[in-house]
Amino acid sequence: MPAYISFLRLFSCSCALLGAGMLHASGLQPWLRELAVIPPASSAKEKDAWMRQVWTRTAEYAASLSEPAAADDCGDAMVLLVPVFQAWPDGKAAGAALAEILSVPAESIGAVSSWDDLVKHQEAIQERVRFLRLKKLAAYYDSAAIRRAVERNRDKYGERYAGAEGFLARLDEWEKELGPLDRWVEQAGPGQAARLREMVDLRRKALIEALPEQNGLKAWVSVRRFNPSGKSSFNHDRPANWQGISSMPGPGRKYRSGIVKFNGVSSSSPVEQLLADDRWVGHLDIDFSGEKLMFTGNGFGKKENRPWDVFELDLKTGKKESLTAHMPADTDSYNSCYLPDGRIIFVNTSGMQGVPCVAGVDYVGNLHLYDREKKTTRRLTFDQDNNWFPTMLPDGRVMFLRWEYTESAHYFSRVLMHMNPDGSDQKEYYGSNSYWPNSLFNARPLPGRPGMFAGIVSGHHGVKRLGELVLFDVNRGRAATEGAVQKIPGHGKPVENVTKDQLVQGLKTPYFAEPYPLNEPFPPPPAARA
């Protein structure tokens, strides 16, 4: 590609929480003391209910903390200690489980029969949390990709890209000493933590902090969710690939969510929580002024009549309001985007339709247009099955994903569409008459690159709303892999046209969720332009 685009990339891991902040000064003891008030399970039958209490209390405690990094510590420690809790009340078995977690001899731990016994090992547990978090940050260490990026940035920016030769020299030293760095990271133990941290720091500096255009990005926001059920976010914090948000599984009603702010693109731990909620929150969209944030939330068990609604958060005042409270009380609203004139497009289930292959139990959502000044709402699409993720294109049209339910081919028939903001001139944008990709979720255009977009390629059954991050260019073609530029990671490799239901099951590369292209290609220095 002739120029780089910066991405804010979100990927899913098997643990409930992932962060990289400094550890809370008071350690894990306050959290463990918080859990100690829960009476122990008196029988095996009560163990599941007891574990749910432990998860719920952890989520509530983490959500109450003012320091997001401290919340990360508690969440990661909870995930780590599940085998210990499952072994109770057998103190010997619990001690053996803790020893295995800490990678130390069982006799050095002894029996762990109570919360007090566990508190004695809090520092070791915290160190283990720190190390495992560091290994996740260092995972997928692609030295060849880093080297290509450094060399390109050096040639592109010249002196404005500081430290290029040092980055390259350090990579050469590491590879000479350690061999292939991705394999070394996989095998690294706690004794190599300092080297892992150095590698993570070099990658962040070379790919993010040293880039001249990154100075313009002062802050960004994201969603953090704590799942009291104890189940991984991998398949429990999003609906299946044929469903709308109204089919969210039970944990959607139980999440402790927060919208958090990060300072600078290299920040890996939030500095402020902008909004806290005891339900699922997601699908963020910033308005064109940068002062308002729209998101999907729900009111299960609250005073609101409708379960799922689109809300707006004023980033200056912190005030929250529902934008879709006027919709019928027996419908759900979600997946929204701003138009430049202040109107919004969102998905709503007003059609009272259901997905055929599940006997209609999953409700179908279509696109609607809401004019805030006129207080009017109009349905834009009248499709048999779901629409998802409307987003603005640079040419003023709106891109969205439509599911064409057509006999057995419905496993592969989600088509990326585009239309005028008023719903007119709806037509295919990418993927018509194609068996690949099955799904193309969260597609967003690349700034300054007409016809290019990034999206998440996923399957039909299997992994939910996660998959491979792929760059597309409709100028190359609009069917199957014709317009697929490359996967990330996947430099220099052709994108294969694969027909498979569970398309991304068992990936060896990261699972991505919501790509967000950040900026236009940065202009080359004057000498390079000459």
Q: Can you put this structure into words, describing what you see?
A:
By secondary structure, the protein is an alpha+beta fold. It has three domains: about 30-135, no CATH class; about 140-215; about 215-520, TolB, C-terminal domain (Neuraminidase, 6 Propeller). Helices cover about 25% and strands about 25% of the residues. The strands form seven sheets. It has a four-stranded antiparallel sheet with strand order 6-7-8-9, with no helix packed on it. Helix 2 (about 45-65) packs antiparallel against helix 3, helix 3 (about 70-85) packs across helix 4 and helix 6 packs across helix 10. It is globular. Mean pLDDT is about 85; it is low at about 1-25 and about 525-530.
Helix and strand arrangement:
Layout: E1 7-8, E2 11-12, H1 29-35, H2 44-64, H3 68-87, H4 91-102, H5 115-119, H6 122-138, H7 143-157, H8 164-178, H9 181-187, H10 193-209, E3 219-226, H11 233-236, E4 256-263, E5 272-277, E6 281-286, E7 292-298, E8 308-314, E9 320-322, E10 333-338, E11 344-348, E12 366-371, E13 376-379, E14 387-392, E15 398-403, E16 414-419, E17 427-430, E18 439-445, E19 452-458, E20 468-473, E21 484-488, E22 511-512, E23 516-517, H12 526-529
Antiparallel strand pairs: 1-23, 2-22, 3-4, 4-5, 6-7, 7-8, 8-9, 10-11, 11-12, 12-13, 14-15, 15-16, 16-17, 18-19, 19-20, 20-21
Count up the helices: 12
Shape: globular
Helicity level: 25-40%
Low-confidence stretches: 1-25, 525-530
Between the first and last Cα atoms, what is the distance in angstroms? 20 Å
The H-level CATH homologous superfamily of the largest domain, spelled out, is TolB, C-terminal domain
Number of domains: 3
The secondary structure category is alpha+beta
Strand tally is 23
Which architecture of the largest domain per CATH? 6 Propeller
Described by strand count, sense and barrel closure, the largest sheet is: 4 strands, antiparallel
Gyration radius from CA atoms, angstroms: 24 Å
